[in-house]
């Protein structure tokens, strides 16, 4: 059946269809069953790194949900043998909300007599055709129904015409509550009346007057074609080799990342993925305090992925990859152009001018390979851009854009927990926290993690001028010791090393985690959302590899009571030195909205860098040829 040649390539469309057929043939699907996801069950890590990669069986893992019994199930499937290997009921779990449920929830709200009555009472509106309904997760605030029903708490908006930006007119005082199993509104909560903000907030090209006319065309061309080679989802570029992955929950993933050094293929990462993210809002008022979205575990970053468009989302010589998923009713769902890959110039890689040879400056341009995807989770867009560089750097940039989640104010009111961005319209303060799982395999599976702090020497005979400082490395021995925060006072970083492989100067080979922008959570540790998002408690976590530990907030954070994931696993305080380790990095963006973020938000970027630190004997990009002159043949900067 399978035509893939690497065991970590994502499921094909044919494999997804086969998985659905296996489940239906085994009698595991009823009229009330929803397919939440079907993805690759990844083979053992040792098989990929030390076994015969040509000999592997393709397996799938399915998550299903029965609306009639409010029950979640997991199934392991053998695709070639077409049989169910395992079937497990997961008590009390609410899996990711499906795209189908989002559409059906909106229809249920618009059809609700209670909602229509509230809309007419507060705004005199009887025609619901211009009402927008965004499904929002219910979370868990200790109320019995949150553990007994599959719920959503939608936010509603009113367009002025069919193409209007409805987010500019929030229906602040009306909050429907939907039972997603029954797909009906079980009640409408009313919190008073707020007038609709008076001004439009349109951003579409056909709605914005007087567009700029002084922009000249900018073209990016590669007349000789790209420098990468692609075989299925396997990619070779410069000295890099890796596999692109994708699934309904995490979206874009990278696998089996290797660098060819002196003719020898060296492993760096087994797997890199976004495991969870949460967006907590800081407004405690009755209509706003429940806004905290777990966009991976509650919505599915992969299911929300865009089909990308040449010239808009991606520029240059592009290679696209499709994603093969499934609807909640078991129908094939292909997201075309879900993943974009291209090369781009990244500025100066290195340069030196010898003043004694002024006519022979040496400069090399940096080029990076970018693998990216973009997901729309109702009002917000998240772009995930993994970049590989010629000098061995690995970077993840998360780019945040889209539309702010807005609230209405009373005339003359200035809410303390947000920013006024238009008359009677404000944007609550909020944060975005992401957690990335970095499953290292640095020149082999057994690795260690060092915490690196830069510290000054005490004044004394050995430091008579008071200028001495040094980098101090601490080997992290156990999980609890590894839980830690960034520390500007000591320029803290983390270094993953292989103590069993020494570099050219006799030190363990290593890669360093260099943080970028980051934040600490502002909410109390007793806040309900933090009970479910324990991964925000520390910036860095380290665990021994366990194939079942994949999601920082646990397998099923939707409506959970919390305490799962990293906070639970690391309480065992397992040893992590010189073993198969996973480094988890949490990074956050604190967003105090600006009027300039409206009506659509310019991109904000956060992320991190993985930088070789003793992995290579010298600058691995020292062998790059000089760039070609633009105006004439030959080379420049040489």
Could you give the topology of this structure?
Layout: H1 13-25, E1 33-40, H2 45-50, E2 59-66, E3 71-78, E4 83-90, H3 99-111, H4 113-123, E5 131-134, H5 145-148, E6 151-152, E7 155-158, E8 174-179, E9 184-190, E10 228-231, E11 234-237, E12 240-247, E13 251-261, E14 264-280, E15 292-294, H6 295-299, E16 319-326, E17 332-352, E18 362-377, E19 380-389, E20 394-402, E21 407-408, E22 418-422, E23 425-428, E24 430-440, E25 446-456, E26 469-475, H7 479-482, E27 493-502, E28 508-515, H8 528-532, E29 540-544, H9 566-569, E30 579-591, E31 601-612
Antiparallel strand pairs: 1-2, 2-3, 3-4, 5-7, 6-8, 8-9, 10-11, 11-12, 12-13, 13-14, 14-15, 14-24, 16-17, 17-18, 18-19, 19-20, 20-31, 21-23, 22-23, 24-30, 25-26, 25-27, 25-30, 27-28, 28-31, 29-30
Structure description:
The chain has 638 residues and is mainly beta. It has helices at residues 13-25, 45-50, 99-111, 113-123, 145-148, 295-299, 479-482, 528-532, 566-569; strands at 33-40, 59-66, 71-78, 83-90, 131-134, 151-152, 155-158, 174-179, 184-190, 228-231, 234-237, 240-247, 251-261, 264-280, 292-294, 319-326, 332-352, 362-377, 380-389, 394-402, 407-408, 418-422, 425-428, 430-440, 446-456, 469-475, 493-502, 508-515, 540-544, 579-591, 601-612. Helix content is 10%, strand content 40%. A hairpin with a 4-residue loop joins strand 3 (71-78) and strand 4 (83-90).
What distance lies between the first and last C-alpha atoms, to the nearest angstrom? 53 Å
Estimate the mean pLDDT confidence: 95
Beta-strand proportion: 35-45%
Helical percentage: 10-25%
Shape: globular
Number of strands: 31
The helix count comes to: 9
SSE class: mainly beta
Unreliable parts: none
Sheet having the most strands: 19 strands, antiparallel
Q: What is Rg?
A: 26 Å
